[in-house]
Recover the amino acids of this structure.
């Protein structure tokens, strides 16, 4: 893991990534337990099991999505991770779509998606 990714993951954990994962895992486990037995539930069970596996070993893309979801619920957290997220999006352009979904705080010019491109040119 590069320094940029490590910094992002560290901050994600500081703003509650582990708690978010635990909450979702709990919901997934409950949904699996409540599924009826039978062939009709098999497809849903597989989806839920895949989701559980993804949460237990999240990719950088999954982490980015979970950070956005957490910040949407708690917008006051976005400023704490915005710079690290921008750095991540700069190194991983495929994650920029998540970055631009972060809630914007008043006066937080770091939240401007144009800054990613500006910093690349600098």
């Amino acid at each position: 893991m590069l320094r940029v990714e490590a910094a992002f993951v560290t901050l994600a954990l500081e703003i509650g990534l582990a708690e978010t994962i635990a909450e979702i895992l709990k919901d997934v486990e409950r949904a699996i337990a409540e599924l009826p037995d039978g062939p009709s539930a098999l497809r849903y069970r597989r989806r839920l099991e895949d989701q559980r596996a993804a949460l237990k070993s999240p990719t950088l893309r999954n982490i980015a999505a979970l950070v956005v979801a957490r910040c949407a619920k708690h917008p006051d957290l976005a400023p704490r991770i915005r710079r690290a997220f921008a750095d991540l999006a700069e190194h991983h352009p495929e994650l920029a779509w998540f970055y631009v979904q972060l809630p914007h705080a008043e006066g937080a010019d770091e939240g401007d998606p144009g800054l990613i491109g500006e910093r690349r040119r600098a």
Summary: Helices lie at 3-14, 17-34, 42-56, 60-73, 78-91, 96-99, 114-121. The two ends are 24 Å apart (CA to CA). The chain is about 70% helix and 0% strand.
